[in-house]
Structure formats: C-alpha cells, structure tokens
Amino acid sequence: MLNGERSIPRPLRWAMIGGGRLSQVGYKHRSGALRDNTAYRLVAGAFDIDAARGREFGVNLGVPAERCYDSYQQLLAQEANREDGVEVVTIATPNGTHYEITRAALNAGLHVICEKPLFFTTAEAREIKALAAEKGLIVGVTYGFSGHPLLMQMRVMIANGDIGEIRMVELQYTHGFNANESADKFEAQKWRVDPKIAGPSFVLGDISTHTFYISQLVMPDMKIASLLCDRQSFIPSRAPLEDNAMVLMHYENGAVGRMWASAVNAGAMDSQSIRVVGSLASLQWSDAAPGELRYEIQGRPNQILHHGMPYLDDSALAEERLGALHTEGLAESWANIYLKFAIAISASQRGDRQTLATLIYPDIDAGLEGVRWIENCVRSADNGATWVNYQ
Amino acid sequence: MLNGERSIPRPLRWAMIGGGRLSQVGYKHRSGALRDNTAYRLVAGAFDIDAARGREFGVNLGVPAERCYDSYQQLLAQEANREDGVEVVTIATPNGTHYEITRAALNAGLHVICEKPLFFTTAEAREIKALAAEKGLIVGVTYGFSGHPLLMQMRVMIANGDIGEIRMVELQYTHGFNANESADKFEAQKWRVDPKIAGPSFVLGDISTHTFYISQLVMPDMKIASLLCDRQSFIPSRAPLEDNAMVLMHYENGAVGRMWASAVNAGAMDSQSIRVVGSLASLQWSDAAPGELRYEIQGRPNQILHHGMPYLDDSALAEERLGALHTEGLAESWANIYLKFAIAISASQRGDRQTLATLIYPDIDAGLEGVRWIENCVRSADNGATWVNYQ
Amino acid sequence: MLNGERSIPRPLRWAMIGGGRLSQVGYKHRSGALRDNTAYRLVAGAFDIDAARGREFGVNLGVPAERCYDSYQQLLAQEANREDGVEVVTIATPNGTHYEITRAALNAGLHVICEKPLFFTTAEAREIKALAAEKGLIVGVTYGFSGHPLLMQMRVMIANGDIGEIRMVELQYTHGFNANESADKFEAQKWRVDPKIAGPSFVLGDISTHTFYISQLVMPDMKIASLLCDRQSFIPSRAPLEDNAMVLMHYENGAVGRMWASAVNAGAMDSQSIRVVGSLASLQWSDAAPGELRYEIQGRPNQILHHGMPYLDDSALAEERLGALHTEGLAESWANIYLKFAIAISASQRGDRQTLATLIYPDIDAGLEGVRWIENCVRSADNGATWVNYQ
Amino acid sequence: MLNGERSIPRPLRWAMIGGGRLSQVGYKHRSGALRDNTAYRLVAGAFDIDAARGREFGVNLGVPAERCYDSYQQLLAQEANREDGVEVVTIATPNGTHYEITRAALNAGLHVICEKPLFFTTAEAREIKALAAEKGLIVGVTYGFSGHPLLMQMRVMIANGDIGEIRMVELQYTHGFNANESADKFEAQKWRVDPKIAGPSFVLGDISTHTFYISQLVMPDMKIASLLCDRQSFIPSRAPLEDNAMVLMHYENGAVGRMWASAVNAGAMDSQSIRVVGSLASLQWSDAAPGELRYEIQGRPNQILHHGMPYLDDSALAEERLGALHTEGLAESWANIYLKFAIAISASQRGDRQTLATLIYPDIDAGLEGVRWIENCVRSADNGATWVNYQ
Hints:
The structure is a homotetramer of 391-residue chains. Helix content of chain A is 35%, strand content 22%. The first copy, chain A, has helices spanning 26-34, 51-60, 72-79, 98-107, 122-135, 149-159, 187-190, 195-198, 203-218, 314-317, 330-350, 353-358, 364-382, and strands at residues 12-18, 40-46, 88-92, 111-114, 139-141, 166-174, 224-232, 244-251, 256-262, 272-278, 281-286, 292-297, 302-306, 387-389.
C-alpha cells in the first residue's frame, strides 16, 4: 500500500507544457504528479498559449516567475542552460502539437509524459519510439484511467485463467457533453473537432483510446486480427470528425469484441466500462465505481470484489492508497501512473534495466498502439465501415 | 389500472399445443392467459409430444382427460366437432412446427397465439398473414417481455419528442446459460441448436427478436435501412447456428443502432435492455428492473420513473396491475399481452373494427418483422458480416 | 419448480369478503389465489360495502350474480345452504371488522384467509386460535411479501450457520405516500388513520407487520426479550395513530434489532428490506429486487444470489415459478402463500397431519405474533418510548 | 472549480505529530494537505512513537532528518527556535493524547489540525476553545468525509426549503472490519478498544462523529433536544467500549432521527450514509458514491444529481476538483477540508475577520459538538439506554 514514502531516490525536476488555467486536464496531471511530494517537483512551465496568462498561472502554482516561459521552445532552450534544469516534461497541449513537442523535448534530452492520443500517425509514433530508444529516454502516455488498482487484479485473474478462454470483449466510453453543437464553442473543446488540431478523429482518439489501452492492459496477449468501424457526425459541422463510433473486432484467438465511443450519448453519466467474457466467467469494471470489480462465474453467485481487500492480488494491493471502504476516484489512478512514470524515468537515469523490463505502465508502445487503433478504425470507417485487417 | 374485471364479454375457450411439463415457457403462457380468470378458460390441449405424459399433465391442470389430445391434428379435428370447441389455440412447440400448426389452426377456424420466432421465412409469414386476413382470424406472437407498462411510457415520451431526434439505439439480450456445451443436452434446450427444428438461427431468433420487437414498439416510426451482423458459434457443435451475435444498424433517418445477443455471456444475470439516445435526452429500460425507466436529459439530473405513479401517461397506467411500490415482474407483462390478444380476438369475433384498428399488441405483422430481422441478419452474417440493405 | 399443476386433489370453493373495485389489495388476493387455476375457484363474494357496486363487480369477475351477496352475514348464511357452498373465505375488509367476520366464518365451518393486521388485540387472536383449533379449521394471514423464494433460502442459510451467530437485525418498511395530509381523503386510505377502524396503530400494523413476519420466517429461533418504540404523527390529524415509528429490540440471545416503519418517508420507492448481521457474514434482501439475495461474508467478496439458480436450496427452488433471469415480483409471492393456504386447508380436510405439522406458512400463530408485536410497540410508545418487556 | 492555484498568499509550514508508517490515517492527511502544493509544505514531524522508525519515515517523505523529532515535545521546543519554524501542526495520534498535544501546540503559538474525536470531554473541548480564542489560533478537526462538494449542495437545498420541513434524519456509519476479535491485535486498531487511550467510546467516537458532523453541516439549524443510545460490545473483551451502537434522537423542531454506528456489520462495504426526510422530499447521500446525491420528491420521478454539473449550486461547484464524469473519492474531500483549514489559518494570520466569519469548515466548535454527541450517547447508554436531555 502506497503511503507517500519515496519510490525513487529523489524527486524529479518537472515542467508542464500546456495544462493552464482553462485546461480540462492540467489539474489532473498536477494532482497525479504531486500527490506524494516525493516523485516530482513542478519547477517550470509553458502553461498557456497566452504567455502572460500562463505566467500568472504558473506563479500561482508556486513556480518561479522566471521559469514560466512564453513557449515550449523557450522552455527547452533556457532550462537546458540551468544546472537544475528540468528532467521531464509533460505535454498537455492539443493533439496536433504532440509530435513536434515530443521530438523537440527528446532532442533536448528530456523524458516526456504526453497526453493521448499520442500523435496523428503510427509513422510518427514509430519515429519517436526510435528516437527515444536512441536517446535512452522514457515516453509515457497519460491513459489516466489505467492506474486503478482493480485493473491489475483483472489482469492477474485473466492470466490465471479465472474466466477461462476469452470469447467476447465489450468496451464502452460514452458521454453526452457534446450532444449539442453549442458545446463546440468552449475554448477547451473547440479544437477537438478541428482535424488540423485534433487529428483524424474526435471520439476515437479523445476517449476510446483510454478504454482500448485498458483492454490491452488487462489482456496483454489478445491481438486484433481485423476490425470494422462505423462512425457518425451527428453534429454535421464536426464532419469529417466523428462524435459517435461503433467498432466490431475479431481477435486472433477467435474472440470478438465491440467498442462504443460517443460524445453524444445524451444524459449518460457513467462513461467507461469494460467487460471481458470468458468461457467460464466474466469480469466487469466501470470507472464510475472504480473500486468494485464484478466477477460473474456462470452458475455461481455473482461476486463483487472491493479495492483494498486482503483477498486481492499483491499487484492490486501494491497500488492501493486509501484502503478498503475509503472511496477511490480518478485522482488515485493518475497518481499511480505518474508514480510509475517517475519510477521508469529514475530507473532509466540509473540504468536499472530490471525495473524497466518489468514495470507495467503506459509507455511509448502503449501510445503507438493507441494511434494504431485509431488509424485502423478511421481506415475502416472511411472505406464505408468495412472490415479491414489490423495493420 | 387492471384489477381482474372482464375486458371482454366472456372468457375465450382456449387450448395449448405444447407447453407441457418439461417446457420452459408453458407456465408463462398459462400464467399470462389465466391471470384474470375473465379472459380465457383452458379447456383442451395437446401438451406434449409424449401423449401419455401430456394427458396426465393436462389433467393436473384441470383439463378434462378427453380433451387432452395425442396430437395437434387430433385436437383440431375433435374440437371442431364440439359445440363448445376451442376458439383460440396457443402454439408453444419448437420453432420448426410453428408454420404448419398455425396454418392448420387457421384453416380450422381458430385464432392463434404463437411463440417467437414465428416462422423460418418471411415468405411463410406473408402467406400466413394472408390466410389469417382471409379467415378473419387473429395471430398473436408471444413477445412476452413487451407487456411491461413502462414500455408504453417510453413509446409516448419518444413520440412526444421528449428525447429529441433519435440518434442511437442500443439493444441487448444476453445471458450465459449456454456458455458450456453441456447445456445442449437438456431436452428443453437441445432442439434450439438444431437448424432443422430451430430454423436459421439460435440466439437471433430465440432472444434478440424480443428486444427487436420492443424497439419497434417504442419507436414505431424508425425503419432500418441497412444492417451488418457478425455471428459466432463459440461452442463449435452449434454451427452453423450462432450462440453470439453482434449487429450494427443504420436507420433511414440517419440514426444508428446496435444489438448484442448472446447465450454465452458467462455469469450475466440482467439479460435484456434498451437505450434510445436522442439529441436532448436518453431513455433506458431493462427487464431486470422493469418497473423503472431512466430518463436522462443532458445537462439535468438523471431521473428514474417508477411504474404505477400518477405522473405516467395514461397508456402506461392502463396496463398497471399491482400499483406503485409493489414490484412487478415478467408475469405481469405476459398477462398484459395475453389480455390484449383476448381483446383482439373478441373484437374480431364481434366485428369491432375500431378496437382492432387501434389496439397495440404483437400481431402477425410483429411476428413477420421478427422473421424479417432474423433473415436480414443471417444473410449479412453468411455473407461475411457485410452490410446488407434491409429487405 | 411450480408450473401450475395441481398441488391438491381439487380446487377449493372460495369467496371474498371485501376486496372490491376500490380496494388496494383485492386484486392481489385474486392474482394469488387464481394464479394456477388448480387451487381455488372464486364462486361467491360480498365484495363491497356498497352492495350494488359489489354485485356488479363480482359479475365482472365471473361470479354468478346470485352468489354476489349484500353482506358477509348473508354470504355465510346462504352459502351454508348450498351443496356446493364455499369452503374458504378471504377477509379483505378494514382491520376493525377482521375479528367479527373471522369468528362468524369459523362458526360457519369455513376456513379463513385474513388480511393483516389480524385483529386489534392478542386476546382476540388467542380466542380465535382456540376457536379454529376446536373447529379444525385453518386461519391464514396474508403477509403477502413472505412468499418470495429467496426468503426460504435466507432461512436455510441462517439455520445452517452460514452467517454465524446473529448479532443485529435491521428491518425497514417505509414509503412516502402519506407524506401529505391530502392522502387521507381517499376512500382506500382514510380508514387507516381512524383508530375505530384501523385499531391501535397505523404504520405499525399496516406495514411493519409484514417485515416483522419476514424476520420471524427467516429467524424462527430468535425471540424478542424487550423493545422500545418511538412513534410520531407528523400529520397531526392522524394522532394518536402514528405515520412514523422507530423501534429498538433486544433479543433473548443478546442480539439487537431495529425497525423503521413510515408512511412519510417522502420520495422513497424501495419500501421494505431486512438485513441480518451475523458474526461471520450478513444476509440482505429487499422487496424492491426480490430475486436477489446479498450474502456478505466479512473479508470475502460480496455475493449476490439470484432466484431460480441451481445453487439454491431445494426449499427455495420449490417455490420458483418463472426461472432464473425472468424477473419475479410481488404477484409470485402472493401466489406462493395462497398455494400454501390451499395445501393446509386441503390437508386439514383430509386429516393429513404430517403436512400440517411441517408446512411453513403465515398461520394463526403468525397473525397472533403480529398483533403481539403491535401491542408491545404501542405500549412502549404510549409509555413515553420506554423499554418494555416483550409480553 | 479548484485547479491547484494558490488560495492563500504562500504555503504554510506544516508538521505532523503521528501519522507514521503504520498509521491508517497519516497518508490521508498528507494527501489532503499536499494536494495542491500551494497550501502547505511538510517541513517537520514527530511521526511515530518509535522515534527511529519515525525519522526514517519522515526522511522518506522528504522531510529533513534534523526536523524529524523524537517526540512532539521536542518538535514544539526546537521548531520554536527556528526562524522558519512550523506554523501549523497536525495531530494524528491516538485519541488519548489529543488534548495534551493540542494544548501544548496552542501554547507554543501553533495552529492545530486534530483528528476526531477531538477530546474525551466537553470540558476539555471548552477549555481548548477558550485557549485558542485567547491565542488567536485555529483548531481544525479532520472530519475527513465532510469535504465532498455535494454536501454543500445538500446544505443549500435544505436551506432553500427544497425538501420542506425536516421530519426524519437517518444516519449510518457501519462496517464489519472488527466483526472478529482478531482485528484487535493490529497495532493500528488495538488502542481503539482501550478506554485509557480511546476514551469513553469506540464506534461512537471513531466513526459516528463523522456522520454526526455531516448532519450538522447540512442542517445547521437542527438542534437535538434529547436522545437515547443503546450500545453493545459483541466482542466481550471490548467492554465497556461498544462495537455497535443505535441512537434515537428528538430534535427541537419535532423531527426525529436515528444513528447506527457499527464495526461489526459483517461484510458491509458501503459504510456511511445520510438521508434527510422532509415534508415534500428527501435527500440522500452515501460516501460509497460521493459524487451522487439522490433527490426524491414525493409523487415525482426520483432524481440523481451528479457532482461537477452546472445545475449545482455555486458553493458545491467551488469545491469541485475533477469535473463531471470524473469519479471523485475520499481524497478530494480531505483536500477540500485541508484547504479550508489553510484559508482559515492564513486569514487568522492576516487578521481577515470577514473570511473567518463566513468560512464553513470543521472548526473547534465542530470538534466540541462531536465530543458532546459522544458524551450524551454514553450517558444515555450507561443509564440503561434511556432518554436523556441533550446537554
């Protein structure tokens, strides 16, 4: 059980690019990174495209004014000149900038933590993967829902054969906050439906990548063979970007799957869930009640496993923060993945290959797989919602 | 609110074909028909393929031994000779016999209530529809979940525009009772996976037609333009019949939809649900809690409507039997549809065209539409899970 | 599993006193008694204090007009003269008439099924118990929620020690339908707050006796040693009758308990629940989802048992009607207890002492215990909400 | 909406007494205080009764070794000599030490944040209240569940009359983690059942004070007139301290209430809830799903309000951290109350009387009221579970 004691020798010097006052995700990054005070120190930032607003904001976060920069370029350049310059940078800017900032940061010798979807293309992702490998640097991707301890429990139970052979995978991430066109007017939202900034998709990239990564986390051996994606723009001005998408999948082992991603599921307040159906039992988890895992064995009473309980696997308990009965939420998940990024970065700095080889966290490959997922979905959708081999 | 008072001038003389001691559905038919004592009298039957067992069973139900027949042919022949012969017959036999028995019963001048799926082909259904029209007889189909009062509420609210324009229809009927091959050994189950008796599908016909009819009941104006069905036989011995199917739909108005039907959703105990997403709000109902209807307006608190409450539409309250707070279940739904069959039959007998023109119940057209749904799904699936125009 | 086959040699000739068109419970009685067509035939009635309305109603139920009587006295007198006169009568009239009608019916040689609360005093109940014994007649009490199969499961599990030693019993039956004084104006409600007709209590008698009986059903060995009742009349015109009551209990074995009964729990739609806490585990059941039983073992995943599943005890499965996945409601519970009344009455008629000795159903003792419960609660409340020894 | 920007001019220099490696609550304090990096800096501590273990722990939290003290006395003495000495100290030690440490800290000129139950007696609480007032220092009490935003919503709705006149208050905080005596062997638990260290109660002080404070927070105008408490020690070795308690309350306005506090509610995983029943509607909240508030208007569809939604009151949205759809948990609640402590302390330092007069947080009065609640409950229980006037 985590209690705030250091997991790495000393806190990392950390900066944010983006994530300013109007950002929807900036606070989640800071909550995650700073949760334990022993993993990161926020020492610099280029928080906002409006430089003055960003500087005022950074100062309000306790960052020295002189390390609140006007641009990421300035940040990278000037921090490189400091003895105590930043070691790792978080990129929480709109999608269209992820690639160039990541490349620049890696070239500046910094570890990178980047928002999803990582980039626009798998070609970009492969290039960055090679660059990071060459530089010996970590690239983490903030699949912020993937740090819930019960997902580790799900992974272990599936690996143990507790549900038998996997037959069906049911994925969903839907909400209704964009049911009306007026939602697109808000600064934090409008770029998400602009292909130049958002990339080739809206909801596929913005939300389904979270659930897709969770599916990979809990079933690492399941590979998609082919898929079919049908996407819609119920608000026509969003076209060609979709605000609703339905995907069918065929896995290599004969299992099948579905994904529903939507920003127009009016009134839905429970967002994201995963159900994995096996030949003996099913496991189901939802981020609306992340401390519960349903384990449904055919022909037996349904079970509800609760976070923090001694009957869970050690890997789930290792990520526990509050303990049984004490409701955990999204912030604990973010804190867990940020802590893993720090462990990976520190291991990288210290040449600790053993840790790097075994640590499970959303790394550059997870980011690449998310982009690949989007790419295949868009290819299918643009081909008339037909089956495509997963490339 | 229904309280058992007669809805028709006198009870109908009713017989069952099938539905004997080992039947899974026979009791539901009797519970539905006899609930109020004023709609039907069970006076004859050919309850079982094992004639002796069927006779003993019928006698145990209170049917005179001489009217417990060895076969449906005998029943039709001998009842025709009685002054007090049966007027309406329920067919609760395996799928493969529905067509011939229905045709014979209609030709014998009897009204028919038949299990779903009605027949194997739309050609058969159209032929029977014409025959029933020619004879002036009613054919009802036991979509037994469709009599829940809150479905009428859902229909009215959608018609009123309470959810705006329909965008997405999410349908599901899944369970896990056939997750293991051993389930196929039971007499009440084994025919369901034999194409000669079950017809061209297993779960599509056996369960998805229920939910499909509910979707038509609550959204009578929504027409499917095209669909795609992907079906699997996770227990190989069931092939070509599917134990799992996933369907995507395009409606003529631009809405999209999904159906998941499965008998291998291990451990699932909540079976059937429908969610209709509109531009303003969504409505969601599940047969696991049929007395609740979720009404989720985007940007407003979610609402839960309860059966029997005065704020409901008159059409929902008209079908109420137990009253608010008193939990209703599947038996009330069956009683409601059986009562409507009786009202239709009585109206037919009395030439009451007004009633026949306005009564909403699962009639021959509903049965035909179910067969059409299966036919299109199977055509798509057998064509490699490709899009097909809805024919 | 029940499927409508006869449980007794022939249906009983049955009449109703009360339960007419405006009655809230009349339909539940008829649904329960007539469910299977093999237990009862409704052949006579004195349905309404308005004799003409009652006769019209009875005819609409299919009762011959000449057996729709103006009063219970007339019914008892004239049916006694018939060869095919009634054998058992249901009393569904306001509380204040239960005693005199029961006594008259027993003296007329009829078995009795009576609404709760049975009578006003335990003295009356003891007198009637003696009279019934003398006459060799059955008196059943319609604790209509007590026929849910999972209550038998709960009884067996507690008896088996599955929850360890009982420590705490949490009982609740609350709703909000009388939150406003205007509710008292309805004919079916206004007598309930008139002490002359309702007796010494409103919610204690009207609703808490249901849950109290369930507690006795599932824990037959638990005896109350003392209790304390605090009751309120939030609508002052109801005084001295309470619309809210809170009871604390001490059991003889050292366990403690609580009851909350209320008709002013505004907005509550889930009514009735029981939780029994043992030293190892708890069992919880609610009539809002009567097909689920929560089994919570300390330190283990919580379990949900579902009705109709093979892992249940035979005593629970014996009362199953619809089967797993098919939602059961209050009507099945009523049908189950009415069937048990019929079995008891038939056993009594045939001198089958073995059946009478082992059948578990709400009999005269259960009725007496309900009256005793109210009597003790009212005594405590009227003594200033102090502890009283259970007498 | 909170996003980590500073709410006070500069972070406070903060120390912890207790809350070391084996503590159940230490991490919650640190998570709460350090969440935003702009309210507190953890600069010193006397974390553990085992000084060496405490020092190692403190260093692991990033505290300089020389400011990890052997005892609270040493901490107070040595920090007083530093220019940059601590300004505020959290007391997370067993109950029996709260009074002396609080007094010493106040006398050393430090603000205090203390665990509940604050002290053993109201006399102590009144003395400390006077001392804090004399010194001009803040005493905050960590009712850690009271910072959930929807509790502010509940407070506003009740004040607005949205539920009408309050009639019934239903409070519960139960779990089963002490169902077995073996639980008492753990170091973090065993002192809780030792009257010398825990004080006059176990579950009343340990858990019911949380829910009691929440009731005062949402209904500040409701005053208890009298109460009755019945307490049990189901594990006899815990006597005279109770592991289960049931309380009845009479409020001055005629409303009534109940509390159930238990550590032996075997298998219960949902812990704490409050339901306030008014003449028109009820409001219900549970810490198991703290982002939902049920609003049940009699005669209308039940409503579920969700955290972070624009329809909420500004006071609820002001405490929002993650936004709608993003599940909040206990950590956000702690962060909110720690932030309020910081705002109060800073206001106190700056002489900002306006802020101090209007800020709603668990202050010394809230702590005193908690002790008063326990005192009255214990007095009633020890008097044979009789009614006592609330003193």
